[in-house]
């Protein structure tokens, strides 16, 4: 936790100190030594891959007077249950690689993944993304090159004329060799990145694929799923939006992030972010 002098002794600084401390003291929630204020739940609207998602956020802020000054602690809870309910619709909008001819040899397959179902559940301090789908195995072989003359119209000043252009191309022969179902689970953690930011960490996925091909065949698709999932989670866990649920005067403090994690609240996925600020003794009200 970092210690920061937030306000000076100027009249403007004294006015700001008076505003924040009067807000807590008038609340009369605890005592003159400790004051607490809750805000929310507040609905935060997001658009995730075209799917409207509402995050319900609540904050609890505590001010404690100490011998050395004042300690301000804040906790933000973001309920992600609407994200959970609509998670399948979000995942169905993921953009995954679809190049049937990325590899143009008979011996190198091209896996094309389609996601059939998905869900999101809290498990302790992580969220686990479950997906089920199919991987289609395509082969793509280049045939002999062909060429032909095509005429193209050109213009010089006011004169139009046609010139022959040789056009060369290669026919590609695509063939779907197999389709294999698979199941995968991806654990995701919410962590403190630094004093001013939180981050997502993706653990190694567990993948079970049915059929002759190994799990490694899904590696390109895994990268695409991770990237899309990361973007989706970043949209619903927007720290700038979540901080708006703090009391107005608290938002003006340079609060540091203490910790961040996911929680399980009766099956609801919760993002918990804890913040704090120390106001040095010289900056406390007289």
Provide a count of the helices: 5
β-strand amount: over 45%
Low-confidence stretches: 1-19, 21-33, 282-286
Q: What class do helices, strands and sheet pairing give?
A: alpha+beta
Mean pLDDT: 80
Number of strands: 10
Question: What is the radius of gyration computed over CA atoms, rounded to a whole number of angstroms?
Answer: 29 Å
Largest sheet: 5 strands, antiparallel
What's the domain count?
1
Strand order of the largest sheet: 1-2-3-10-9
Order of SSEs: HEEEHHEEEEEHHEE
Fraction of residues in helix: 10-25%
Q: In one word, what is the shape?
A: elongated
Termini Cα gap: 25 Å
How would you describe this protein?
- Helix content is 18%, strand content 55%.
- Mean pLDDT is 80; it is low at 1-19, 21-33 and 282-286.
- 23% of the residues are buried.
- The two termini are 25 Å apart.
- By secondary structure, it is α+β, with helices and mostly antiparallel strands.
- A hairpin with a 2-residue loop joins strand 4 (110-123) and strand 5 (126-156).
